[in-house]
Every structure is written in C-alpha cells, then in structure tokens.
Amino acid sequence: MPALTFVLPHWLYWSGLIVFPLVAMWLVRRQERRGPGPRPSKFLAYLFWLCSGFLGLHRFYLRNLWGFVFVALFVGILYANGHIHEERENVSRTRAEALKATTALERAQKRVDADAASVDAAELEQLRATARQAKAGHDAAEGDMAYWRNVITGTGGVIGVLLLIDAFLLPGLVRKRRAIEMGAQAAAPTDIGAVDPGSNVAAKDAALRRGYPAATRWIDSMNGWIGEYVSYWAILAVFLYYYEVLARYVLNSPTNWVHESMFLMFGMQYALCGAYGYRDDSHVRVDILYTRLSPRGKAACDVLTSVFFFIFTITLLVTGWRFAMDSVGVGETSFTEWGIQYWPVKLMLPIGALLIVLQGIARLARDIGVLIGRIPVVTAQEV
User: Comparing C-alpha atoms, which of 23, 366, 34 is closest to residue 213?
Assistant: First the structure.
C-alpha cells in the first residue's frame, strides 16, 4: 500500500503564512472589482478536482452524477484498507508463531546433534510439522495483505486515470453547466424589490466612524487589515487537516507536523486578532448594565474601566516582550522531531499586545471625544 513520508519544510511553512494571505486578499479584491462572475466557476471546479477529486466533488459541483463512480471507488479503497488493518495483525501474529516454532525446532535439532538419544524422533517430527504449518500460515497472511494492497493500488490507479480524463473534460463540463444555469435564470422571474441586506455594510461602518481623529482611523485601518490578513490562515488549516485525514485514514501515514503547525498558527492568529476583535466589540463580554446605557454613558463607562484594560495589556506587552526576547536570544525551536522555530511564534505575543494597546488608546480617544462632544454620536439605526 502506498505511504506518505512528506514533512513540511520550515521555509515553506513560514513563507506560506506570509504569502498565502496576500494572494487571497488580492483575489478577493479583484473579484470585488469585477463583481459577481459566471457560475459555476472553472477555478472552483479545478480546485475541487485537485483537492477532493478522488471523491468526485468536482463532478458534484457541476451536478454531474458521474461523481458517484468516484465515491464507489473510494469506498472500495476504505473497505480494502480495513482489511489491511486486519491482515497486518494476522501477519504480526503468524510471524511470531513461525518464529516461536522455528526457534523450538532449532533448539531440538541442536540437542539431537549433541546427543541423538536426548530427543524423541516423533517429537522432532512434530516440531518440524508445527514449523511448516506456522510458516505456511505466515505466508498465507502475507499473501492476503499483498492482495488487498493490490486492490488499493488498482482502485487508486483507476481513480487517477478518471481524474486525468476529467482534467481535460472540465472546461467543457463547466461551459455546459453554465449554459444550463443561465437558461434557468433567464426563465425565472426577477424580484426587482429584493435588496441585499449586506450591501450597505461599508457605508454604515464609515458613517459610524465619521468624525474620528486621523490617528484613531489609522489604528482602526491597520488592525482591520491585520485581522483580515491572519483570517485567511484558517483556509490553510482546511487544506492541511484535509491532508492529515487522507494520510492517516486512507494511506496509514499519520503525521505529527500537521497538528503542531496548526496549533502554532492558530496561537499566532489569536494573538494578532485581539485588537481587531476589540475594535469591533466582537470579543466575548458579560453585559448586565452596559447595554442599557446611552452612547455617552457607555463612553463614560469605557473611560473608567480603561484603567484596568491598560494595566492588563501593558503588563502583557512588557512580560510578552521579555518572554519573546528570551526565545529569540537562544533561537528556540520545537522539541518535536519537526523542530520548527518557536521564536517567531512567541514574538507574536508582544506584537499582538502592542496592537491591543494601540487600539485601546484609539478607543479611549474616541470615548473622550464623545464625552466632550467633539465626536458626534451615531447609532447603527440612524445610518
């Protein structure tokens, strides 16, 4: 049965965390400028073909029933893989039995060579028969496992051939499906009064932030960009955990580096997204009286409680900086066999704390502006 021995290089991990969000943001901006494109998308069809074609999801995306052929073949691989697990246990058991029988026969033969009368001929023949039987059982178990391995290899080969054929057929299939859906849209009645409820989100956000000082707008924009940037790391998790599930349950090649890379990535994401969450009040909070206050009452409450906020965040910044510098100084790496660098991960702690402190300063400036009347109070209902 095929096995995977790939281990993600360190340079690819770090460069992926840097480059992938930039590419994703560029693609999103480009799509926003172009507006809604034709459906289905050739790009998505090939993405499904590349990442989950063995399950026929690219066919299902195009509403093509040939996808069930891929599903049946993949189920066959899982069925054969279950037998591989059983046969591996049989091979291990029969190997131990064969070794035990062979060892007993060799010891008896040595006693015969030393003193022919010390071992009964019938006993020696029985040991030989037991050894032959044990070896035959081991050979049979090896043969059964080889059979199921060949089933997996053959079925995987069939899936590979079908995927290769679909690589050339996909453009035509996309055009055909697109024509069908466009015809259905042309025949369907149009609801002129329908309005996208999220179409005015940017306008509302801009109105709610009008009158803010330039520095606070800059901090808001920076933390918004950083929050969006690291949010695309979650897409990387989908691909890597997909790889891990496939490697572990289909090819019997589990990894350690996937889990380690992802919990480190999510730790950095958590540290860097704190300011973004604080900017938009998307963090978890317990509100008993706060929600009942007026906008100026909320601003006054925020100003009073900001003392505790800055005590915590500045302490986090100072201790996080010391913590990170100790790691940078020794070039700390993981203690696992992957050996990934730890110091960039720990460096995200003071950086994230600094972003939260800056966002707290911007929040405090706005609250003071609301209290003294320099910043107009605008609610979401008034936009």
Answer: 366
pTM listed for this prediction:
0.72
* Domain contains 9: no
CB 48 within 8 A of CB 58: yes
In the predicted structure, residue 210 carries a pLDDT above the cut 70: no
Name residue 341's beta-bridge partners.
Answer: 333
When divided into structural domains, the chain yields a total of 2
Question: Does 165 have pLDDT greater than 90?
Answer: yes
pLDDT value for 37? 65
Query: Is the pLDDT assigned to residue 201 strictly greater than 50?
Result: no
Confidence of residue 343 (pLDDT cuts 50, 70, 90): very high
Q: CB-based contacts of 258: which residues, under 8 Å, 6+ apart?
A: 8, 240, 241, 243, 244
CA distance 338 to 7: 8
Could you list the residue range(s) of the whole structural domain that residue 221 is in? 203-283+291-382
Assess whether 279 and 175 both reside in one domain: no
Tens-digit pLDDT profile for residues 103-120 = 988 887 777 777 666 667
Between CA 100 and CA 92 the distance in angstroms is 12
What pLDDT is stored for residue 119 in this prediction? 60
Could you tell me if 112 and 214 lie in one domain?
A: no
* Spatial separation of the C-alpha atoms in residues 39 and 64, rounded to whole Å: 15
**Token pair listed for 14:** 């770090």
- What whole-number distance in Å separates Cα of residue 350 and Cα of residue 261? 20
Quote the pLDDT of residue 380: 41
Count of other CB atoms within 10 angstroms of residue 365:
17
Residue 320 class from Cβ within 10 Å (0-12 exposed, 13-18 middle, 19+ buried)? buried
